[in-house]
Design goal:
The chain is of the alpha/beta class. The chain folds into two domains: about 180 residues, glycerate kinase, domain 1; about 250 residues, Glycerate kinase, MOFRL-like N-terminal domain (Rossmann fold), CATH 3.40.50. Helices cover about 40% and strands about 20% of the residues. The chain has 16 helices and 15 strands. The strands form three sheets. It has a six-stranded parallel β-sheet. The protein has a six-stranded mixed β-sheet with strand order 10-11-15-12-13-14, sandwiched between helices. Strand 4, helix 4 and strand 5 form a beta-alpha-beta unit. The longest helix has 18 residues. Keywords: ATP-binding, Kinase, Nucleotide-binding, Pyruvate, Transferase. InterPro entries: GK-like_C_sf, GK_N_sf, MOFRL, MOFRL_assoc_dom, MOFRL_protein. This is Hydroxypyruvate reductase.
Length: about 450
């Protein structure tokens, strides 16, 4: 799971942090999660707590998109067997499948292949009838991987706007409010295209709070955001879109275009959503590993947001407090958190919230008895090719340069030169950030 583990496992505390990270990622692997959620006995298909009778439908099609879509497709192919009629998913992590077409798109900026794949997904949905069961596989990254820009807006314009939004410091809720109103598939529009088919969505959450309307921009669930909301986001972050995008949003705000479908839309009368895994799934697995290593685990929150470097200061302060006063927990302990922090690019670097979190946290802590680790569970932190980093204060041998790297949003070179980055490669899953602070050292020396 961690390619450079041997280099990183400097102490038992480091080993514990790495084991927690690996366990969290493994617990949210799509193949594992899907296999646990799905079962079939004859015509009875079980999805979590729900049962669907396949004999009620003339055809069964699979659509979807996200970083985990191909792995999810592999499992559902095995479960459905010859009951599967057709399918197409879009992902940036392709896998070999037998009957479901896998289109390789791009993340975080959409590309032409993703647009073509999204059109194929929409076409299958459009062809669905009341006799069709549509199984929609949704995971993190689906917003970028299923672009389907509306008429009058080019993919190039959408790409440019996406880049501006991602570097602005806007939250995923804000970014997706914009993307929903520039796409033919997001914000419940896939469900509208499939109606009157029965739609069951199988979802791996990558958003804080698990709001299904935000995950992959909610293609199969109601959307309460508006054109006005989208315009407000662009104004708030001083983003100037292309003329075509500005006109589209302005016309929608003026009532000249229909809003995305809301909860009372008949498109959702035959839809159901199944949340299969989320950030807390990863935290719970990491908690179990910490206990096995003789540490007292504390899950601080699965919903941490905000600037990465600032969130790190709070985490480090809690770790130092535990060492000084045994509050809120007596060491040896492992502090865990999840969610999604952001980086507002003020410098010339490429950001990387998990790497910024680690560097800021290690700089903030006053003790070498605190090991700070943080990764993006998809294996790619910001624009870098690593998942995150792990460090303690002793690893930071040039604090002036470290602080300069933080100021420039360019922490990767500093961390990489010191062998502190965590390399997992693409993990096939995405449930946002997983942060581990090991406080003190356990007597367990495994």
């Amino acid at each position: 799971m961690i390619r450079n583990r041997e280099e990183l496992a400097k102490t038992p505390a480091h080993e514990t942090a790495l084991d927690c990270i690996a366990a969290g990622i493994e617990a949210t692997q799509p193949t594992r999660v899907m296999s646990e959620a799905l079962d079939r006995d004859g015509s009875a298909l079980t999805i979590g707590d729900a049962t669907v009778d396949l004999d009620d439908y003339g055809e069964v099609v699979v659509v979807g998109g996200g970083k985990a879509a191909a792995q999810m497709a592999n499992v559902i192919e095995d479960v459905l067997g010859d009951r599967l009629t057709d399918g197409v998913v879009v992902t940036n992590d392709p896998q070999e499948t037998d009957r479901i077409a896998v289109v390789e798109g791009s993340h975080p900026t959409p590309n032409e292949a993703g647009e073509e794949g999204a059109r194929r997904v929409l076409s299958l949905a459009d062809d669905a009838t009341a006799e069709t069961l549509v199984l929609c596989l949704i995971s993190g990254g689906g917003s970028a991987l299923l672009p389907a820009p509306v008429d009058g807006v080019s993919l190039a314009e959408l790409q440019s706007l996406t880049d501006d939004l991602l570097s602005s410091g806007a939250t995923i809720h804000e970014i997706n409010a914009v993307r929903k109103h520039l796409s033919a598939i997001k914000g419940g529009q896939l469900a509208a295209a499939a109606a009157p088919a029965t739609v069951h969505s199988l979802v791996l959450s990558d958003v804080v709070g698990d709001d299904p309307s935000i995950i992959a921009s909610g293609p199969t669930v109601p959307d309460e955001s508006t054109y006005a909301d989208a315009r407000d986001v662009l104004d708030r972050y001083d983003i100037q879109p292309s003329a075509a995008i500005e006109e589209r949003l302005e016309n929608g705000d003026d009532g000249e275009r229909s809003e995305t479908p809301t909860a009372n839309d008949p498109a959702f009368e035959r839809t159901e959503l199944h949340m299969l895994a989320n950030g807390f799934t990863a935290l719970a697995a990491a908690r179990s590993v910490a206990e096995e290593h003789g540490y007292t685990p504390v899950i601080l929150s699965s919903q941490v947001e905000g600037e990465a470097r600032e969130a790190a200061k709070t985490h480090a302060a809690i770790a130092d407090e535990a060492l000084a006063t045994e509050n809120p927990v007596s060491p040896p302990a492992v502090l865990l958190s999840g969610g999604e922090t952001t980086v507002t690019l003020d410098g010339d670097g490429s950001g990387g919230p998990n790497q910024e979190f680690v560097l800021s946290g290690a700089l903030t802590s006053t003790s070498a008895d605190v090991v700070v680790a943080s990764v993006d569970t998809d294996g790619k932190d910001g624009a870098s090719d690593v998942a995150g980093a792990i460090a303690d204060r002793d690893a930071l041998d040039d604090e002036r340069r470290a602080r300069a790297a933080l100021a420039a949003n360019d922490v990767y070179p500093y961390l990489a030169e010191r062998g502190l980055v965590v390399d997992t490669g693409k993990t096939g899953t995405n449930v946002n950030d997983l942060r581990v602070l090991v406080v003190g050292e356990s007597d367990d020396t495994r």
